[in-house]
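Our platform keeps sequence and structure together, in a single record for each protein. Nothing more is needed to write down the fold, since each code stands for a local backbone conformation. An entry from our holdings is shown next, in its original layout:
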Amino acid sequence: MLNILPAKEIYLQGNEHALLLLHSFTSHTRDMKTVATALHNQGYTCYAPLYRGHGTHPEQLLHYQVDDWWQDVVNAHQFLLDEGYQKISVIGLSIGGIFALKLAQLERLKQIIVLSVPFDKEPEQLKQRIIDYAHNYKTIEGKPPLQIAQEMEPFENMPLHAMNVFQTFIQATMEQLDRIIIPIAIYYGEKDDALYTQSAETIYQHVHSSRKQKKGFGNSKHLMTLGRDQEAIIKEMIEFLQI
């Protein structure tokens, strides 16, 4: 049976401008590895924390919820402050984008870039993401179908309460978009669900940033930082961060 190595945080020290890179829900820091490497090569300090329960056996996800992952983001931001960085920008993918928006409402950031951000998510959809992740993980491990079916029961029987809290967190963040006044870039994949195109427009219209841009990428699905537009997205990020 295949033993999948757990993911790790990424910390690449560079100049005085630190980038906090936030991965998506049920994924891990590989979402940001190529981006972090490319931006570090441009001189930036890059830090991608790993949310609790992510990047390891899916059973770990059952022990945490959105408030824990948000606290991980708050702690990561504080880590950069403690390291002496006063110029901090945030790049967030999917739920990482939600966290970036939330952080921009509460802290002094230089700029943010958000990708594939949902303006709402049904609790059932969020639960299904965990179920799909768990099933795929166990399949990759090479477990037999009967064992997988037995091990999937806790995921299938997971109560929706934590997912309701998750949905409320997203909605509350979206209701405070007018508090964002720093430069923001909003990217979405044109091959992703139409919800994300709509969400990008919602964010664009409601933030109070004097410098804001919205851009769709024609070859991208949801995990934009890993897709076919990866190079073009990194190029856009570099241009946006340098202004």
Summary: Residues 10-121+170-242 form a domain with the Rossmann fold fold (CATH 3.40.50.1820).
